[in-house]
Amino acid sequence: MLAMLVLSCDRRMWNWRLLVIWGTGSFVAFLLMFGELRFPLTLFFFAGLLAGGIGWGMRAGIAGAGEMMVHRVLTIVGGAGLLLRILGVIPSWGLEIKAFSYVETGLWGGLPVTIILATYGLVFAFPYGILLALGRRSKLPLVRGLCVGFIELIRGVPLISLLIMASVMLPLFLPQGTNIDKFLRTLVAVILFAGAYIAEIVRGGLQSLPRGQFEAADAMGLNYVQRTSLIILPQALRVVIPPLINTFIGFFKDTSLVLIIGIFDFLNTANQALVDPNWAGFPGEVYIFAAAIYFVFCYSMSRYSKYLEVELNKGTRR
User: Fold this and answer.
1) Which of 47-55's residues contact partners 24+ apart within 8 Å by CB, and which partners?
2) Is the model's pLDDT at 146 over the cut of 60?
3) Residue 279 or 133, more confident
4) What is the pTM of this model?
5) Helices (H), 209-261
6) Dihedral of alpha carbons 228, 231, 232, 238, sign
7) What digits encode the pLDDT tens for the residues 266-278?
8) Which of 110, 182, 228, 297 is the most exposed place for a label (fewest CB within 10 A)?
9) DSSP 39
10) Cα separations (Å) of 28 from 23, 35, 111, 233, 289?
């Protein structure tokens, strides 16, 4: 996972190769963590609908007839299959890969837990926050109202309350016999919380753009998806790089709050190490080592944001 993060920092990898790296790396990482993976048929339909829809919206008027036909077929097959699966017409089916024995997530701990929560929490929260920010600026009252209500609700409560809700309260509302892994519930809570904050940061970037950028995109004949993804969002995200990285650093450190619900991240594992008689007399060394690890990660993110800010603003400097 560290190798995936390092490769992601290289701007030359910001293309289809990054998707392949993250897809392959995540598959291997989850297989090592859970021992087995199951891909339901619903996931394949959803992936087809998502890939086809994005390609249809972004490449309309640009791509050739053959490519557009592929996007349309993916969208129609994915959407129809997902609808039939929800209605129960298509039976449940899943691809299962059982390579290793299962290790309960309650036995996980240490730096891998911190990195998994911070990395995948922010990876999923980032596009989710962008959608929330776009929804908050939507002209549709229902969409705008739902996004505003969700963002204000999540930002109005501390992260600890969401973790407790995910760990204690949510199982009480699930149907009898349904059990969602506590680590997965914690990860979802982190994603919801981080997404609300990222949405407000991205909204600030969208509001900072002059009206002429929107009018210029309209004058080029671009549709909403092309205008947003090719013209508006790249400029807005470039403006908000410092607050985004500040939020990422904050959430990396906030992962230590998961001790409240009995998950042992890196800092809490260091605390537990002091119970070991071999480390009982060295609390200073343990905490200095923990501080050094946090400093390395947070300082690296800070310096990388500075590098990105300089690199991406080369075209605007005089």
Assistant:
1) 47/78, 48/74, 48/75, 48/77, 48/78, 48/81, 49/74, 49/75, 49/78, 49/79, 49/82, 50/78, 51/78, 52/76, 52/77, 52/78, 53/78, 54/225
2) yes
3) 133
4) 0.83
5) 211-219, 224-226, 233-239, 241-254
6) positive
7) 888 888 888 777 7
8) 110
9) E
10) 9, 10, 18, 31, 29
